[in-house]
Every structure is written in structure tokens, then in C-alpha cells.
Design brief:
Layout lengths: L1 H16 E2 L9 E12 L2 E11 L2 E8 L5 E5 L6 E2 L2 H7 L4 H10 L19 E8 L8 H10 L7 E7 L1 H6 L1 H12 L3 E7 L24 H14 L4 E5 L8 H9 L3 E2 L4 E2 L11 E5 L5 H13 L1 H5 L4 E2 L2 H7 L2
Parallel strand pairs: 7-8, 7-13, 7-14, 8-9, 9-10, 10-11, 12-13
Antiparallel strand pairs: 1-5, 2-3, 2-6, 3-4, 4-5
The protein binds zinc ion.
Zinc ion (ZN) binds next to loops.
Length: 325
């Protein structure tokens, strides 16, 4: 009995030392890419970053089965460093590694590389909302309507927001509003890394544009956005969306080497692409693409009967990836 209760107490301590960040703000120093794994309460986690805060050492780790990310204090766990290719082979049966392999099937595409849809989903879609840098305010009205339309059937509404560091810097009150909506239980956000600067040029051809522009520092583009989220008390996810949906094999491989899964879209509504069951739908709520938001509202209106009878819903990106083979 004594031993059992000691194990129980240890379990409780472990839970306290592992956080979703949600609400807990960090000031990461030496925030870096690292590879390895650790096991917490029979869940295997793939470690993708580590950082220091004062004297304490933390890991940022992806649950290999559920795809959620935790910030974990080093002293609470036993970390096993491993090269990424070894991890890929050790954990090859887990949804996280399978998703990386699945995304890699489209690694050479100049446009829309990575995962585009979820074939297993037959009763709805995954909504991804991009917040590329913008001078215009957040389309709050879109979120408010979405929350109201689904308040009986889906509360909180699961949404993936592709976030850029520059947008957070330039829209602090809009960012706080989104976090507030999550805190009161209206939405459940998956923060998809959409790079820090999201550079874009009107004149350059695609193969030299966005992250392919000369002078891009992919390390900064990925890590600075994650750090910004942690400072704001939010948790990054293992997902990445290429700015402009543009990448080449080298940039794609870099993103994978950081342990992130590229997420494309088969239904960019403003480009007239039609959503089907299992689609990853793309809209922009940064003020620059009102037509996409209108089309999404029209879609919700058309699906009203199916929503009420639970035959159509929005899915959580982490769960959609976890449920694919
Ligand atoms: Zn963008």
C-alpha cells in the first residue's frame, strides 16, 4: 500500500511539472531544436525543443499518439536523446510519425506540399484560418458568427489558426481577444506555425518567393514564432503552414527536421476550391480576404440541417491527424 500511494503521489507531481502552457507564460532562453523522447505516464512524447528559464531546463514535446504538445520540466522525466531518423523508426507506428511520412509524399510540390485532406473523415471538415501579417484588424465578426452558429452543437469550436510572429506583434489586442475566446470556452485553438515574418514579394516568381526568397533564415522563422507563443502563455503545435503554400524540397525537409508536419489545403475558399468531407479548408481572417469568410458562412448555412443532426461538424486538427492511419 505504501508503495502504491508513493507512486500515486509521484504521478501527481509529474502532472504538475507538465503544462499545456495555456495561461502559463514562459521566458525561454536558448530555445533550440533538439531530438529525443521521453515517457510520461505510459504516453510517449517526442521531444522537439528545449529551453532554459533561469536555472530550469524544459522540453517541448509532442504526444506521439494524440499530437498535443506539452512543456515539460527536465527534472520530472527521463529524457533519451536520439537522432530524428532513429525516432522515425522507433515510433513508426504512432500517428505523429505516420503523419510526417504521409506529408512527405508531397514534399517536392512547389505549391501546396504536405497534408491536404483527411480521407477518413466523412462527416465534416477541418477549418484552418491564416493570420498572415496585415495592416487590417482581425475579422472578429467571423469568429463571433461561427461561435453563435455552432453554440449548441460544438462548443468550443475547434479551429486551427496559422499564426505569424509579426501578426502577433502588430495586433496585441486582437491576439488577446482570441485567447480570451478560448479561455471562456468558445473556441479551441490549434496554433499552426505560419513562419515569423511571412515575407512575400509582388514581383518575384514563386520559386524565389515566400520562404524561398534569398536570405530566409528558416531557424528564426520557425523558432521565433514558437517562442512568441510561449511568451504569450500559448502552446505551439507540431504543424506548419508554408506562407503562400509555397515551398521546395529543401525548405520542406528543413521543416520536417524541426519535427513539424506541413499542412496544405484542398479547399482555399477564396480561390473557388470547393470543400468536401475531409477537406482542410483555408480562409484568411486578417482582413485581406472577406470573400473566403463569406463563402465559409454560406457553407455553414447550407450545412445547417446536417449540423443539427450531427452529420456535419468541424474537427480538431490534432484529432484528425491522430485518427488517420
Ligand atoms: Zn499566409
Amino acid at each position: 500500500m505504501k508503495l502504491l500511494s508513493r507512486i500515486f503521489v509521484l504521478g501527481l507531481i509529474c502532472i504538475e511539472l507538465i503544462s499545456n502552457a495555456n495561461g502559463q507564460s514562459y521566458k525561454p532562453e536558448k530555445y533550440e531544436l533538439t531530438h529525443g523522447y521521453l515517457v510520461v505516464q505510459s504516453d510517449s512524447f517526442i521531444v522537439i525543443r528545449d529551453f532554459y528559464q533561469k536555472e530550469k531546463h524544459f522540453f517541448v514535446a509532442v504526444n506521439s499518439h494524440r499530437l498535443d504538445v506539452k512543456v515539460i520540466l527536465d527534472s520530472a522525466v527521463r529524457f533519451v536523446p536520439k537522432a530524428q531518423d532513429e525516432l522515425m523508426s522507433m515510433f513508426k507506428r504512432t500517428p505523429y510519425i505516420k503523419a510526417i511520412e504521409n506529408a512527405e509524399l508531397r514534399s517536392t510540390m512547389l505549391q501546396n506540399a504536405g497534408i491536404l485532406r483527411f480521407p477518413k473523415i466523412n462527416k465534416g471538415i477541418d477549418l484552418t484560418i491564416d493570420l498572415c501579417p496585415s495592416k487590417l484588424p482581425l475579422d472578429k465578426d467571423f469568429f463571433v458568427k461561427l461561435i453563435n452558429i455552432l453554440k449548441v452543437e460544438e462548443k468550443p469550436v475547434p479551429i486551427a489558426i496559422s499564426i505569424t510572429g509579426v501578426w502577433i506583434n502588430e495586433h496585441p489586442s486582437d491576439f488577446a481577444w482570441l485567447v480570451g475566446q478560448e479561455k471562456v470556452g468558445n473556441i479551441k485553438i490549434t496554433w499552426v506555425n505560419h513562419s515569423y515574418h511571412h515575407r512575400v514579394s509582388k514581383d518575384l516568381p514563386l520559386k524565389e518567393n515566400f520562404l524561398l526568397e534569398k536570405g530566409t533564415n528558416i531557424n528564426d522563422e520557425i523558432l521565433l514564432t514558437e517562442k512568441k507563443l510561449l511568451v504569450k502563455g500559448e502552446t505551439p503545435s507540431p504543424f506548419f503552414r508554408f506562407p503562400g503554400l509555397v515551398s521546395d524540397k529543401a525548405v520542406f525537409d528543413s521543416v520536417i527536421s524541426y519535427g513539424l508536419i506541413p499542412i496544405g489545403s484542398d479547399a482555399w475558399l477564396a480561390k473557388n476550391q470547393k470543400p468536401f468531407a475531409g477537406s482542410i479548408v483555408l480562409v484568411h481572417a486578417n482582413g485581406n480576404e472577406p470573400i473566403g469568410l463569406k463563402k465559409f458562412q454560406k457553407l455553414l448555412f447550407e450545412k445547417r440541417d446536417s449540423i443539427v443532426s450531427k452529420r456535419w461538424m468541424l474537427y480538431d486538427l490534432r484529432e484528425s491527424v491522430a485518427d488517420e492511419p
